[in-house]
Amino acid sequence: MSKGEDYSSGWEYESRDEEEANYDEVSGVAKEQELINVHMSNAKVAYELNILCLPYALVGSTGPTNSESRRGKRSATIGHGLQEYVKRNGGRKMKIDFSEGRARPADSNQASKLTSECGIHTRNKMHVATHWKDYKEPVLAHIIPNAIKSVAKKFEMDTKDEVAKDVCTKIFQSVGRTVEEALSKRPCHVTQENWEDLVNKWSDERNQEISAKNKQNREAVKHQPKTGSRCYIAHFHQLKKDKYNNEDPSPIDFFKDTHIDKKTGRMSEEAQIAYTAMENKRREAQSEGGHLVSDAQIVAEVLKEHTASSTFLSSMGLQSRPGSSKPSASALRIPELEERVQQQDMEAREANEMYQQELNKKVEAQEYALQEMQRKQQEDLEAVKKSQQEREEAWAKKQAETDALLSFLLRKHGA
Fold first, then answer.
1. 101's torsion region: left (phi>0), alpha (psi -120 to 50) or beta?
2. Looking at per-residue confidence, does 19 or 222 come out higher?
3. Which among 166, 174, 177 has a CA at the least distance from the CA of 131?
4. Where is this region: Disordered (predicted)?
5. Model's pTM, two decimal places?
6. CB 81 within 8 Å of CB 113
């Protein structure tokens, strides 16, 4: 078969006979290199035409190929979800809606994205302190505010909002507790000194005792939630949309929804006892009538009987978190609001007293004017009566004189 061209594909080929004829022992290396060049040229044409040709794919191979060396290093995928969200929404970032009294955003998607970005920043950028209280020291006081600002750049959120800062700080605090994951391998951003401090801290006997106690406390929780990795707030928001037609579910119903195992469809024994007690109290309150007891009060009473530090209602934003070392923003404003109310009440009382005094003065002035008017009227009436009496007396006197004159005239003519 002679050398030629395949015009349908553009391949240049040579027959096997001619390939063997071109090979001799004297110039074998040169001939072999020439054949390799021809085959490589043909393979290039095949690649451009998107035609699979295994022999050409193997031409020039000097041995087993290393797939890892051919493939490039996988690029980082962190943050791609937010980038796609921004593209889908015309460059608008995801807005994070914060609610006072809640440790996470209500929307599950917002909560997961915010938590994920806080975790990424903690693992890749933030200085890891041995204790959370260390961030209050002057040397490290800037770390948490800067971390919040860095995460906020990827969202539509106000970094000056106290509720937003409080939620982000709690997320950083919860992420920072899982340092044992980082202990297996030193992150690239952590210095050796910082890493040794962490290792020394988590290897400390006292810290291990604290960790063991915390583990026992977690295992001793009677009412373990069955919401998976989703927090109460996000689960509450999702149930509100999917099951309750965008209306807030009752705390009793929400307790049931969050403590039923999806696989078995049942609650644990402790959760079932608590739920039964809640239902009984609700039926008693409805049957008795009179003072209505809210479901939140019923849940608080029942959970208080079972555990002294339940965070169920506080996670829903219906009650302050028990034993919280740091008061919430609303708690901090209570004294200020009470003082403002007292000030307004005092001002209102003073204004009322001044108004009452002015009103009393006006009433007294009106009463005095009325008395003066009555006195004047009385004087005028007496003057009128006196004048009338004088006129009557004068008329009577004149009438008597007239009668006397007539009597005299009659007597005179009669004589």
1. left
2. 222
3. 177
4. 1-22, 373-397
5. 0.35
6. yes
